[in-house]
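Folds vary. Our protein:
___
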Amino acid sequence: MIQVSIACAAILAGTQAAGQQSLDQILKNGVVVPGKKPPATATTPKQPANQPRSTTPAARTGTPAAASAGFHMDLPPGWRAQVAQNGAVMAAGQDGSAVVIAPVLGAGGADAGTWLQGSGAAAVGQYFQSVAMTGIYQSRMGPSAALASFDYAGPSGAGTANVLCFLNEGVGTLYLIAGPKAAFPQQRSGLVRILRSFSFTGEQTGGEAAQAVSHTTFTRFRDPSEGAFTIDVPAGWKVEGGLVRKSTLDVRPFVWMNSPDGSTAIHLRDPSFGTFIIPSQMLAMAHLQEGMTYTPGYGNIWVIARYLPGPQFAQQYAAKLAADTQTSDVQIKSVNPRQDLSKSQTTGIVQEQTIGGEVEFTCTRNGQECAGKVVASTRLHVTSTMPDSALWFIDLLASFVTVRERYGATDQMLQHMIASTEWNPQWEAMQSQTAYKTGQIARDASQYTAQVFDEVHANRERSEERIHQNRIDTIRGVVRLKDPNTGEELEGVAGRNYYYRAPGGRAFGADREIRSPDLTELEQIR
C-alpha cells in the first residue's frame, strides 16, 4: 500500500499543478491545429447536461485494486484497474482499450507541446509497443496544455492513442485513451467518459485539502428555471441558484451554497451583474454618466461603468462578498493575475480581450478568523465600427469565505465544482439562435440610435453657432436675412420692421411695408 499512496500522491500533485478543471476545459475548447483537423478526443461532446451523472458509490464499478488505491473510476463490465510501477493509474478492457492517468515529474521549464515532442513517445511506450507519434497539437488554453496522437502495436493489431498533457513548472498530468485502430473512433466517447470519471477517494492520498474533497459527497444540481446547466454541489449543503433571465439576451446563471454548520459559503457567479457599457461621448450627450443605466431596448439594461480587468474586479467583489456573507474586517492579502484565464482574439470587426485574476483575503465572521478567495475574468468586447460603445462582461466569477483551517479544502472544492459544470447543448443551441436573431435587431436599433445622437449633436452645434453669430450681429448692429427664392443669406441694418431686396441685389430695411413687384421681401434669420 505504500506504493499506492506514493502513486496517488504523485498524480494528485500533477493534477493540482496543472489545474483540476484543465481536462474538461481542453475537452470543451479543443485544440488549435493549423491546416489540419485535430483528433476528435479534443472535441468529443460532453454528456448532455440533462442526463444526471451518478455520484453514489453503488454506481461505481471500480475494482478492488482501484478502491484500495484511493481512487474510483466508472469502468464497463470486464475492465480492470491497477497502479503501474511508475505510479500511473491504468484501466484496461479485454479488447485492448485502455485509459491511463500518469504523473509527469521533472519536466523542467518545457511547455506541454515541447515535452510531448521530446518525451511523449517514451512516456506512451511504457504502456504500448512500437509507439510512433502521428501528430501534436497546441491547446487554446496556452502552452501549459497540448494534445498528441500515437500509433502503436497492440496485442490484437494496430492501435491508436490520444494523449492530453498538462504541465505547470515542470509538474503535471498525462491523460491517455487508447484502443484498436479500427474500433477507436466508435470507442472514443466512452473512453473519454471513463477518463472523466476518475477521482480520488482520499483513503490513501494524504493531504488535508485532497482528503476533504475526496470525502465530500457531491450531488448533481440542475438549473430549475430552464434546465440550462448542471453542477456538482456538496450533499447536505443549503443551495440556491439557477438561471435568472432578464431578457432574451441577458441570462445570469448562479449557484450559491452554505455548509450545514454555517462556517463556509461558496458563490459561483452573481445575478447582480449583467452587461456593462463603458462611458462614451455618445452617452454623455444623452446625459448618461457612469453609474447610471442605459437601455438599448428589448428589455436589456446595461450599467455604465469603466472596464475592470479580472484582478481589479475581484478586489472590488471581495467587499460585496463580505457584505453578502456577513463578514467584517476584510484585509486583502494578495492580488494576482491569472494568465490561464486571459486571452485576446479578433474575429472580423470584433476585438475581445479577457483578463483574469484572483484575490485572497482574511476577515472575521461570527467571531472566528476566516479567509476567502475571489477568482474573476472579465471580457472587453469592441467593434471597429463603434469603438466608443464597447461592452464588457464577466466570464468567470467564483468565490468563497470559510474558517482559516478549511481554506485549502474549500479552494479544492471550488475547483471541483467549476470543473463539473456542464451546459445543456439543447439549451445552448436555442439560446444561440435567439441571441443571433435578437442581435440583428439590436444592431439595427443601435445604428439608428447612433444616427439620432449624431443628428442631435449636429443640431446642437448649429444652434450654438447661431447664438454666437447673433451676439456678434447685435454688437455690429446688423441682422441676418435670407432670400426665400434663392436661399442666399444677406446682411441688413438692424432696427427695421421690414427688409427687402432690390433688383440689383442690395438689401435695405423699412419701417412700413412696401408692396412692389420689383422687390423681394426678405426673411430674418433668428
Summary: The first strand starts at residue 31 and ends at 32. DSSP finds ten helices and 29 strands in the chain.
